[in-house]
Amino acid sequence: MTDAAPADPRVVRRATILRLATGLIQGLLLYGLYQADKSKVWPATSRELFAALLLVFLFTPFVVLAGVSALRFRTLAVWKAVAVIVAAGLGAYGVWSGDPAARGVDGMGPQTVLAVAALIFIGHHLVQPADMERRRIARFATYFDVTWKHGVQAVLSLGFTGAFWLLLFLAAALFKLIGVDAIDRLIKHEAFAFPATCVMFAAAVQLTDVQTNLVRGVRTVALTLLAWLLPLMALIAAGFLLTLPFTGLEPLWKTRSATAILLTADAFLILLANAAYQDGTEKTAVVLKWAARLAGVLLVPITVLAAYGLSLRIGQYGLSPDRIIAGACVLVAAGYALGYTVAAVRPGAWMKALEVTNIAMAFAVIVVLLALCTPVADPRRLSVGDQMKRLHGGKVSAEAFDYLALRFDDGLFGHQALDVLQRDPNPVIKGKAVWVARLDSRPYQPVQTARPDRFTKTKVYPKGQALPKSFVDQAWNAEDEPNCLPGYAECEAVLADTDGDGVAEVLLSYGRTFDIFKADAAGVWTKTAETTAFCGDVDKALEAGDVHVAPSPPAQDLVIGGKRMRIDPSPSCAKGGETDEVVVLHAKP
Q1: Cα–Cα–Cα angle for 90, 95, 99, nearest 5°?
Q2: How many whole angstroms separate alpha carbon 67 and alpha carbon 92?
Q3: d(CA 448, CA 473)
Q4: Contacts by 464-469, CB closer than 8 A, 24 or more apart
């Protein structure tokens, strides 16, 4: 992609060959990675290496496609090497710091992919204009022209590639009408799909590159349409801020998404202000000039509200990966807000300081993205550290702590923290950490918090006994949660050693059935067995007072009220037999 269509046909021919070759090589490399992952062979056997190669093959060809006819060879080679290092390093780190149990690149997360794409796009549009002008910092007009031109080319190239595939699907459908399925089988084969897609995208880049006036025309139309949305967006933002004194902030915070919405408003104000300003040399309507100035001023209160809302959430619940990323977005928005406000109120050429702000914030965004995607400010690392401090500092109780986030959201750092918590001297922390560590997938319902009133009306037998404190205080998962709640189910509990290990289990009856709960070495209670219906009056039998377990090799017999009940997987309630042996315990799968 160049600033102007090259006049020399040899230059055009060389750029065409290099772009098409780049697309073909990219497609073949991506197909090779796909096959390696499918066959579970090298490099797919190394999660970090596979992720590094995937991001390199996916994004770094853009450097060649965009810069082959605009950058000097030395600059192109150095920038390409830097892009490879950044993509590979962030990809490998993303997988290494992600979920250790995740397959392939699943542990990397979309944030790494988006960050690499943004870094290469922003970085390229800092490098190319500077190289074109042989300066470290180019003129703003050059940054604007190259960046927006490449953005339009990317959209057009994606549309061209999509149209190419639509035509192939249409051709396959037409030929299948007459019994020929060769095209259908061809386009469904990955060996064709990967190279064809990449080559067609590269061809589209070349075609749009030599049609500079067409691309600029599309860009001008798009910017003009966007610019005339700026007065409406400024009016919406001003109206929102003027309404706040009458509604207060409480409705805003109740949405639980106020920061995200406010930052989105900031992004639209910034985008539309740039659409109106363009490179600063175009004639602009007065209404757009004033709308841009108003937008620059409005950025400040909106960003302050976003920061305040985020600070409230952090104060209540501590850091999380999402809140750290939101904090980074607030920081970037604050930079834009400051610069655009200065541009709006400074006398002289309208919004002139916007140029310096945009260039400076491009470098700032690169720094922020690199920090977020490396150990410097890894959101998962910072989140885990903060949440562990809150737990051990008493800001969050052991029952309310989000153990599931450590297991499923916080990657390697969360797993390491969960390992530490499994050795915690607090039995509640240890028990819940052990339970969560055993999970292979996040349960549909979160871990329940402890209910102090759960067993307040539960009768315990033998009389005079009490339920273990760890059993009463435990926070239950939805699957095993006892339903002994006042007004819902008033249970009977039997403490008896049903398996002969010398430790009593808890048998809970909800009427005519029993569930058996056993504590493991970590003190976590889980349901290990259940019973069929009790063929008799269980309350009367328990009130008799004789509750014990009698040995009956190879198992045990449960004796309640003088009745011997075989712990056996076969049914024991005979037809009409209230005097038969009545309880059967089945091991839980």
Answers
A1: 145
A2: 26
A3: 11
A4: 465/495, 467/493, 467/495, 467/506, 468/506, 468/519
Alpha helical stretches, state H, 498-575: 538-543
Question: Tokens at residue 27, please?
Answer: 């497609």
300, 341 Cβ separation under 8 angstroms: yes
The Cα–Cα gap between 274 and 516 comes to 67
Buried b (16+ CB within 10 A) or exposed e, 149-179: bbebbbebbeebbeebeeebeeebeeeeeee
In order along its 589 residues, the chain shows pLDDT tens digits of: 444 444 578 889 999 999 999 999 999 999 999 999 999 999 999 989 999 999 999 999 999 999 998 999 999 999 999 999 999 999 999 999 987 766 666 667 789 999 999 999 999 999 999 999 999 999 999 999 999 999 999 999 999 999 999 999 999 999 999 999 999 999 999 999 999 999 999 999 999 998 888 898 999 999 999 999 999 999 999 999 999 999 998 888 877 789 999 999 999 999 999 999 999 888 889 999 999 999 999 999 999 999 999 999 999 899 999 999 999 999 999 999 999 999 999 988 889 999 999 999 999 999 999 999 999 999 999 999 999 999 999 999 888 899 999 998 899 999 999 999 999 999 889 988 998 988 888 775 555 555 556 677 788 888 888 888 888 877 666 556 676 655 445 678 888 887 778 888 888 876 666 778 888 766 778 777 776 656 667 677 777 776 777 766 655 666 666 666 666 443 434 433 443 333 444 333 3
Cα-Cα-Cα-Cα torsion 15, 20, 21, 27, nearest 10 degrees, comes to: 150
∠ CA 191-197-15 to the nearest 5 degrees? 115
At 319, list the tokens.
């850091």
Given a contact cutoff of 8 angstroms between Cβ atoms, the answer to whether 424 and 453 are in contact is: no
Distance from C-alpha of 204 to C-alpha of 219, rounded to nearest angstrom:
16
| Burial annotation 203-230 (CB, 10 A radius, 16+ → b, else e) | bbbbbbbbebeebeebbeeebeebbbeb
Q: What angle do CA 118, 377, 387 make, to 5 degrees?
A: 130
Contact between residue 49 and residue 43 where contact means Cβ atoms under 8 Å apart:
yes
Q: What are phi and psi of 363, to 5 degrees?
A: -65, -40
Half-sphere exposure of 570 (CA within 13 A, CB side): 2
Check residue 536 and give left, alpha or beta (phi > 0: left; psi -120 to 50: alpha).
Answer: left
- Judge residue 321's burial from the number of C-beta atoms within 10 Å of its C-beta, 0-12 exposed, 13-18 middle, 19 or more buried: buried
With tokens 């065409």, the residue in question is: 16
Report which of 372, 342, 376 is spatially closest to residue 357, judged by C-alpha positions.
Answer: 342
Q: Token match 């810069």: residue?
A: 67
Contact 447, 404 (CB under 8 A): yes
| Assigned token pair, 160 | 């061209």
Give the other-Cβ count within 10 Å of 101's Cβ.
Answer: 12
**Residue 311: exposure state from Cβ atoms within 10 A (0-12, 13-18, ≥19):** middle
Contacts of 385 (CB under 8 A, 6+ apart): 413
